[in-house]
């Protein structure tokens, strides 16, 4: 092949690649405009809210788990339980969880030392948390998520109003806490 042909083919592939990623970016931006931002309603009900089981999976989260748990402890929600699954952490994650548990004895802690054959780590940790849950609604979250006090109530009320069986939410990454 001549050098000019290779340069031409490379140029065409480059233009097609750039065009493709441009279209992906446009599609993503269009999709993001349709994402609903859940806002708390001052008239949110306080009664008739289901019990929620918050299941937190943590693997090597010593830097974030205590702060995350403190925000969960401060939730403005009448009936919830918190289950933390320490999934084979090799850092001080368990010590951080236990330090919070000393002041919040309702916190349930499950420690996984070994991963059973055929399981992926995160899936197994979620399953173990689910097995301990007693709530009507399950909230699976990571150990580095910070919650605003009204966030759980807002999400549950939103689900109730729409009779939703499932709700996936993404955090507001633009708001500093």
SSE layout and pairings?
Blueprint: H1 3-33, E1 52-58, H2 65-73, E2 80-87, H3 93-103, E3 108-112, H4 121-132, E4 137-142, H5 151-162
Helix pairs in contact: 2-3
Structural account:
It contains five helices and four strands; from the N terminus they run H-E-H-E-H-E-H-E-H. The chain is an alpha/beta fold and 177 residues long. A four-stranded parallel β-sheet has the order 3-2-1-4, with helices on both faces. Strand 1, helix 2 and strand 2 form a beta-alpha-beta unit. The longest helix is centred in the first third of the chain and has 31 residues, at 3-33. The radius of gyration is 22 Å and the shape is extended.
Oligomer: single chain
Poorly predicted regions: none
Count of alpha/pi helices: 5
Briefly note the structural class of the backbone.
alpha/beta
Keywords:
single chain, 177 residues, alpha/beta, four-stranded parallel β-sheet, 5 helices, 4 strands, 42% helix
Concise account of the structure shown:
With 177 residues, the chain is an alpha/beta fold. Helices cover 42% and strands 15% of the residues.
């Amino acid at each position: 092949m001549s050098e000019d042909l290779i340069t031409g083919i490379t140029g065409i592939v480059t233009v097609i690649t750039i065009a493709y990623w441009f279209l992906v970016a446009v599609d993503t931006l269009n999709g993001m405009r349709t994402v609903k931002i859940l806002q708390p309603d001052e008239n949110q009900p306080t009664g008739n809210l289901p019990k929620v089981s918050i299941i937190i999976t943590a693997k090597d989260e010593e830097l974030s788990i205590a702060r995350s748990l403190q925000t969960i402890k401060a939730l403005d929600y009448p009936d919830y339980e918190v289950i933390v699954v320490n999934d084979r952490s090799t850092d001080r994650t368990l010590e951080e969880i236990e330090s919070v548990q000393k002041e919040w004895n309702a916190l349930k802690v499950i420690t996984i030392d070994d991963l059973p054959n055929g399981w992926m780590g995160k899936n197994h940790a979620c399953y173990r948390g689910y097995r301990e849950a007693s709530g009507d609604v399950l909230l699976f979250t990571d150990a580095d998520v910070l919650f605003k006090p009204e966030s759980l109530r807002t999400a549950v009320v939103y689900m109730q109003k729409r009779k939703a069986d499932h709700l996936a939410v993404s955090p507001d990454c633009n708001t500093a806490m």
